[in-house]
């Protein structure tokens, strides 16, 4: 199995072009920033984040905007009993703390990479100065926050209207096509699950025993095969069709 590797500079530049922060950088700053070097003004950070190393913790001041440009990040809350619960998965290219940033608030949860990831960070004082001279940037971020809120509402609607089977297949499909590291292929599409079964049950709002039964059903039906955390996609066309999407 190949280990997960971050993308090459040309791929990273393409990803950053879609970032709501980086898209507004002057050309002289964008190129070095895209390959992880500091910009001439040392204002924009392209963080390379290791798995399970928090990007920020609950309770810390929200002093920057973060945009995931590569990888997969979990937003986790710590319950009163001390257990961590994933409340949201962040896929590229998404800002994941805009509401707290605009309220000048503290983080109510922690952000933790589930795989090696890249994150664009723009500190508050830099954003304020850039936005003052570039109102389009501020408006783009506002539109981004509106889009994120709309997506959150759609997710809530999906939980209410979709069956447990559809919710779980939708999550697995998203991980297979966007958020999960790939392994070497021998004709079968494979991906590595970056989530525990308990986390998948929590995200899809189902009991662990329901999730276990559905995973067995998927194998029996010839959709997927599970080898610990490695998932083999046996029939991609049927998998897409099962969640009402096209490949």
Keywords:
247 residues; elongated; 2 domains; three-stranded antiparallel beta sheet; single chain; disordered N terminus; 9 helices; 41% helix; Arc Repressor Mutant, subunit A; alpha+beta; Jelly Rolls; four-stranded antiparallel beta sheet
Fold and architecture overview:
It is elongated, with a radius of gyration of 19 Å. The longest helix has 27 residues, at 135-161. It is α+β, with helices and mostly antiparallel strands and 247 residues long. It has helices at residues 9-17, 27-34, 98-102, 124-133, 135-161, 164-179, 197-203, 208-220, 236-242, and strands at 44-49, 64-70, 73-78, 84-90, 94-95, 110-113, 117-123, 189-192, 224-227, 230-233. Helix 4 (124-133) packs across helix 5 (135-161) and helix 7 crosses helix 8 (208-220). It has 9 helices and 10 strands. The protein starts with 8 loop residues before the first helix and ends in a 5-residue tail after the last helix. The chain folds into 2 domains: 9-159, Sandwich (Jelly Rolls); 163-242, Arc Repressor Mutant, subunit A, CATH 1.10.10.10.
């Amino acid at each position: 199995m190949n280990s997960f590797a971050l993308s090459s500079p040309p791929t990273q530049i393409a990803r950053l072009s879609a970032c709501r922060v980086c898209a507004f950088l002057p050309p002289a700053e964008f190129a070095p920033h895209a390959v992880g070097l500091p910009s001439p003004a040392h204002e924009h950070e392209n963080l390379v984040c290791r798995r399970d190393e928090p990007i920020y913790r609950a309770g810390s001041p929200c002093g920057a905007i973060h945009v995931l440009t590569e990888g997969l990040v979990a937003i986790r809350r710590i319950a009163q009993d001390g257990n961590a619960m994933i409340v949201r998965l962040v896929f590229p290219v998404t800002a994941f703390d805009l509401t707290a940033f605009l309220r000048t608030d503290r983080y109510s949860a922690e952000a933790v990479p589930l795989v090696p990831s890249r994150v664009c960070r723009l500190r508050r004082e830099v954003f304020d100065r850039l936005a003052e001279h570039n109102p389009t940037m501020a408006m783009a971020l506002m539109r981004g926050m509106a889009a994120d809120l709309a997506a959150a509402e759609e997710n809530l609607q999906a939980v209410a209207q979709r069956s447990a089977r559809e919710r779980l297949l939708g999550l697995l499909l998203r991980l297979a096509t966007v958020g999960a590291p790939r392994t070497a292929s021998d004709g079968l599409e494979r991906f590595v699950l970056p989530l525990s079964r308990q986390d998948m049950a929590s995200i899809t709002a189902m009991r662990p025993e329901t999730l276990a039964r559905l995973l067995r059903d998927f194998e029996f039906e010839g959709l997927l095969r599970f080898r610990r955390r490695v998932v083999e996609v046996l029939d991609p066309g049927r998998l897409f069709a099962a969640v009402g999407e096209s490949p």
